[in-house]
Fold each of these.
Amino acid sequence: MRHGLAFALGCLRNPRHIGAIAPASRALARAIASEVSRTETGGVLIEVGAGTGAITRELAASSAALDRFVVIERDPDFARMLRRAFPLAEVLNHCASLVDSIPIDVRQPVTLVSSLPLLSMPREEARRCEHAMLALIGRQPGSRLIQYTYAAPHLRPFHGIPPGWHWRRSASVWANLPPATVWALERVPSLTFLGVH
Ligand SMILES: C[S@@+](CC[C@H](N)C(=O)[O-])C[C@H]1O[C@@H](n2cnc3c(N)ncnc32)[C@H](O)[C@@H]1O
């Protein structure tokens, strides 16, 4: 099935959980993959809310250096498509709020990519997903979260970030429908590391 049609059917099934009018463009997928490989040092790559796999495809192509690629998608039809298209990925068909229960060796950094429509999905579910994502990257040293939004480019994806973390705007992708902003949530660099004592 063509991705556009699969996406449209997904919107009909559950509009609030899709939260977009079209699959991610190649330009957006490339911007995210480029942010992922910016500090790629092995470890685990996790994508939540993978939908039709538009971003998954780009991540799979650039994730050779990673130890493990896990994909979480709550829609069973999308999850089936993803399993067929990405046999090397571990595709989990459940809510992203369980992302912090994936067993991962504490020495493995996690790069977490989120396509979750945090602004349109039910607020309580969004809050549970945000907490789980923060819990996961907080417990695995060297981890970070990459989230894209369709909101105004100055608006952070969500608030309630623990001390010692900050959002960095990674890219604005105008050639996407609608235009998107890619954000990275990462630890504030320590002053000692920068040579300031
Ligand atoms: C914006 S769409 C995905 C776009 C995807 N990048 C694409 O181009 O097809 C958001 C996806 O998040 C999934 N989703 C929404 N809420 C979720 C949740 N709580 N846990 C896991 N997946 C969720 C939806 O089923 C949908 O596939």
Note: The longest strand covers residues 165-173.
Amino acid sequence: MKNVLVIGSTGQIGSELTRELRKTYGNEHVVAGYIKGAEPQGELRDAGPAELADVTDGELIASVVKRYHIDTIYNLAALLSVVAESKPRLAWRIGIDGLWNILEVARENGCAVFTPSSIGSFGPTTPHELTPQDTIQRPRTMYGVTKVTTELLSDYYNLKYGVDTRSVRFPGVISYVTPPGGGTTDYAVDIYYYAVRGERFVCPIKEGTRMDMIYMPDALKAAIQLMEADPSRLVHRNGFNIASMSFGPETVYQAIRKYKPEFEMVYDVDPLKQCIAESWPDCMDDSCARREWDWAPVYDLDAMTRDMLDKLSVKLKG
Ligand SMILES: NC(=O)c1ccc[n+]([C@@H]2O[C@H](COP(=O)([O-])OP(=O)(O)OC[C@H]3O[C@@H](n4cnc5c(N)ncnc54)[C@H](O)[C@@H]3O)[C@@H](O)[C@H]2O)c1
């Protein structure tokens, strides 16, 4: 039986990953790690253990790991792309100094570590169509700089110290439980909220700007499946490309209009978000993930759209 610590459990991905891991390994075996000011609420707080786990405090992380006999850490602490541009020093402290603390605790206590990378680890000189697994990574955002460093440092701890580090490059994650935390792909979540509320959506990303996206159930499946994968099959370790769907604003708009024909969208492009979006892949090649650990997404744009509209209709009514 695994004992798991989720760091950043109250964020967009953490809130749902913690619940999924508790379903898989049992409530008592999954600790929801949080920071002051972002305490878990409701089911997340009540269903299993919850502990302060700030990545900038290595001793605190070590004490939680020892107390709960943790063997697997999902480290989701980060500042997302748009926020990181306004607080680059803090983004580095959380993303990299924090990761260093976690990898040290993992080395001393024999833990496996999952620290996600992102499509943001690529930059303008990366091939944009079918972006290969191993390719140019020269991002020009602080978010991207921390993500490339995350991949390299995680690989280093695996090669040098044998720490079992693994990760994927998440596309923009679309979900209806916890709102996104300030990334470039947030528009693809927001658009569904506007559609369900019957309001006109003002899109900050230019028509024709394609990016990889993934529906939350597939993102959770990827993280857990990779951490459960047979290590002898893994040629890569950190930063697996995972693809599921790729679209621009006009395509998701049309997908929603199929079910809500009255829905309206206009554009008011945000220069920072647009600049970041244009530097990211249009669509990634995920054949390594498929080959090495049987990655296969379930949701396409239409299936996700139906589910998002159904779930948000219930949520926003209540
Ligand atoms: N959501 C996406 O679309 C997306 C896409 C690609 C990669 N990712 C990556 O997935 C991970 C999780 O993303 P998310 O969308 O859930 O982000 P989020 O912003 O919603 O959540 C981040 C979490 O980190 C916590 N946190 C902040 N500072 C911390 C610290 N010092 N110590 C411990 N925890 C701290 C926050 O309280 C929050 O719970 C991040 O590494 C992110 O870069 C997310």
Note: The mean pLDDT is 98.
